[in-house]
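Dear colleague,

Thank you for sharing your sequence with our group. We've completed the structure prediction you requested, and as agreed, I am returning the results in plain text so they can be pasted directly into your records. Please verify that the sequence below matches your submission; if there's any discrepancy, let me know and we will rerun it promptly.
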Amino acid sequence: MSSEQKKGNLPLLIAVIFLAMIFAAGAWALYSGWSFAPAVHEPAEFSAPETETAAILTTATASEAPRTTTTAVTTTAPDPHAAYLSYLEKTLVPEFGCADTSGPVTCSAHSGIAGVFFDDLRGSGTDDMVVIRLDITDCTTAALPVLLWYGDKDGEITLLDTFEIKPQWSAYCIRYADKSLYLSGEFLGDQGDPEVWRFTEMQLDFLPEPDLMLQNMEQETAEKRPEPMYPENAVLLLEMQLDTAKPISPLTERRYLLRTYTEYSGSAAKP
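Please find the predicted structure tokens below.
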């Protein structure tokens, strides 16, 4: 073999020798039971990505200016009836006194202011005042009502109209509804004889002129007693009753009970 051939086969020979060495190493590994440990890539420890914590907003932070506490001031609306009540207490009560509502008394004890109510009677947008005053007659029957209608004119309390009840009654009631007064009265006579009993129903209207006018009136005996004129929504203002626990005759021994349900009780006023 020529030297050129030896040079050409040299790389092949080296490759064969290298493969033989690998084969021999593998055979020895199988014979001895040794194995290559597989390369295990341990995962990196998991950690959550850092997040930015947003500052919690409150109604009062360190940088917030101090709060100013405001105290609510409650104002009381003026009494729209203050001028009327002042006139009543300073003028009318000293002049007429107050009716007695303490219990059964003679008719003379009922003389004076017995009640008051307020309403817009002329459609003016402001209330008027109606005073119920009781006047005695001859002390043989109950003290009878006199109705006094007052209004505010240019800042002054003015008497607009007056209505005096004429029939003689032993007992009666006064009611009010929708700018009308309703009076129901009864007369028992001197001896309380049913044959002479009389019953009366009256309606008085407040007209804007102003005028307190008798609109309707019926008077009958017990057998033909008239039907009440007042509606169901009528408000009871005052009632006068004959105290039947006391003797009906003689007339001088009769006692009467007065009850008032108006916004102002005359018996509580101080002259």
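Summary note from our side: Strands lie at 112-119, 128-135, 144-153, 156-164, 171-177, 180-187, 198-207, 211-221, 235-242, 256-260.

Kind regards,
the structure core
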